[in-house]
């Protein structure tokens, strides 16, 4: 009887392994064009390419090849497929707007008090434009959570600020353990002028893993990360 039960479960197990392998292969295939497009998405000043070198190149095609070489050296080696299987790993493969949406939602899910604070019209409109329908359940979460409103200096910060906070949350949690993934995300985010305020208040947040599950469920409709 035991042998029959084991035999019956083997096909399902094999199917799950094949599905997992297929998903990892698809992630690797999706990573290549994102890595190739990095020169068009990032601030090339990060590369510190000598201007004399660029000026001496004979044509635009050669210039583009040199820039891509510098980008590849700056980015580092390709990540393993497993690094792209997590939710933050999948986010690297997304368009910039979709990535920013998730990072912003992550920061707010960790700090429900932000949306309970008195947010000025402009940042409120920025959050609505970036988060879209995700903003409503995040507001509901803020009403349910037992946390104090955040300092007004941060409550009136724009959506771009919370994108950056979400990025820093993910880095601190080790969400992108492979250096190339973290660099790719950072390279696509715009520079930010940080508002003044008591930074210690930002550290009073929900656990990262808990907030990540919330964001994945809200944005991607999935229960796993």
Describe this structure in words.
The protein is 65% helix and 0% strand. It is built from 13 helices and no strands. The two termini are 36 Å apart. It is globular, with a radius of gyration of 21 Å. By secondary structure, it is mostly helical.
Outline the secondary-structure elements.
Blueprint: H1 2-36, H2 38-41, H3 51-56, H4 60-75, H5 87-91, H6 96-110, H7 113-116, H8 121-131, H9 135-144, H10 152-155, H11 159-172, H12 179-188, H13 208-220
Estimated radius of gyration: 21 Å
CA-to-CA gap between the ends? Answer: 36 Å
Percent range of helical residues? 55-70%
Shape: globular
List descriptors.
disordered N terminus, mainly alpha, globular, 225 residues, 13 helices, 65% helix
Put the structure in a nutshell.
The protein has 225 residues and is mainly alpha-helical. The chain contains 13 helices and no strands.
């Amino acid at each position: 009887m035991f042998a029959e039960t084991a035999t019956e479960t083997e096909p399902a197990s094999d199917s799950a392994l094949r599905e997992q392998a297929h998903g990892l292969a698809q992630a690797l295939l999706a990573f290549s064009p994102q890595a190739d497009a990095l020169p068009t998405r990032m601030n090339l000043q990060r590369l510190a390419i000598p201007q004399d070198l660029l000026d001496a190149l004979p044509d635009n095609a050669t210039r583009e090849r040199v820039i891509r070489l510098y980008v590849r050296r700056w980015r580092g080696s390709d990540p393993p497929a497993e690094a792209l299987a997590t939710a933050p790993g999948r986010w690297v493969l997304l368009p910039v707007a979709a990535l920013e949406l998730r990072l912003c939602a992550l920061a707010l899910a960790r700090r429900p008090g932000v949306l309970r604070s008195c947010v000025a019209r402009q940042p409120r409109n920025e959050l609505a434009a970036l988060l879209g329908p995700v903003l409503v359940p995040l507001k509901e979460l803020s009403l349910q959570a037992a946390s104090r409103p955040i300092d007004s200096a941060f409550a009136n910060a724009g959506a771009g600020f919370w994108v950056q906070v979400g990025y820093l949350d993910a880095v601190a949690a080790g969400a992108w353990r492979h250096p190339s993934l973290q660099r790719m995300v950072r390279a696509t985010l715009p520079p930010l002028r940080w508002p003044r305020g008591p930074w210690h208040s930002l550290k009073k947040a929900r656990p990262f893993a808990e907030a990540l599950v919330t964001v994945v469920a809200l944005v991607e409709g999935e229960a796993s990360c």
